[in-house]
Amino acid sequence: MSQVKVGIIMGSQSDWPTMKLAADILDELGVAYEARIVSAHRTPDRLWDYGKTAVDRGLEVIIAGAGGAAHLPGMMASKTRVPVVGVPVQTKALSGVDSLYSIVQMPKGFPVATMAIGAAGAANAGLMAAGILANSDAELAARLDKWRDDLSASIPEVPSDD
Ligand code: RP5
After folding, report:
1. Which annotated residues bind substrate (predicted)?
2. Burial (Cβ within 10 Å: 0-12, 13-18, ≥19) of residue 41
3. Ligand 1: which residues within 6 Å by Cβ?
4. Closest ligand 1 atom, CA of 89?
5. What are the φ/ψ torsions at residue 114 (nearest 5 degrees)?
């Protein structure tokens, strides 16, 4: 595969079943990515190093997912100008509203593009990353257009009783 331009980072191994849905979309669209566990609280030095080297390593989008006190996306946005797409992971205690609120209310100057809570948000993060890269990659743009057309075509016009 080509140069890795998308980093998928998450606060814990327990986030991977959700974040894998972003990876699955990127696989479908032929977009190279790396996946890493980078915790704002448990591995802050790893977070700092990841953010500090992101531009030089050629990353163009970072998808960051975390749950609960979900500081990873915002802290990553404060450390690199690479666009950060935030995924609020669904939690048991508060259903992911805690994650959403932790990610979405960034102060002016350090944006995080915050997705929906959970599975849909992770898949959409993959699509968002692909859309950003497609602006400068005509072949990826064609694959993404087809992916979207196929999804539209799969939606029946008439509801079924089954
Ligand atoms: C966050 O705490 C992680 O992003 C995860 O969603 C949550 C729980 O982590 P574990 O206790 O399952 O490792 O930092």
Report:
1. 12, 15, 42
2. middle
3. 11-12, 14-15, 39, 41, 66-68, 89
4. 6
5. -90, 125
> What confidence category does residue 162 fall into, taking pLDDT thresholds of 50, 70 and 90?
confident
pLDDT in tens, 9-34: 999 999 999 999 999 999 999 999 99
This prediction's pTM: 0.97
| Token pair 């990127």 in the structure block, residue | 26
CATH 3.40.50.720 for the 6-153 domain, yes or no: no
Enumerate the domain spans of the chain.
Answer: 6-153
DSSP letters along 87-120, please?
EE---TTTTTHHHHHHHH-PPTTS--EE--SSHH
Q: Is the ipTM of this complex over 0.90?
A: yes
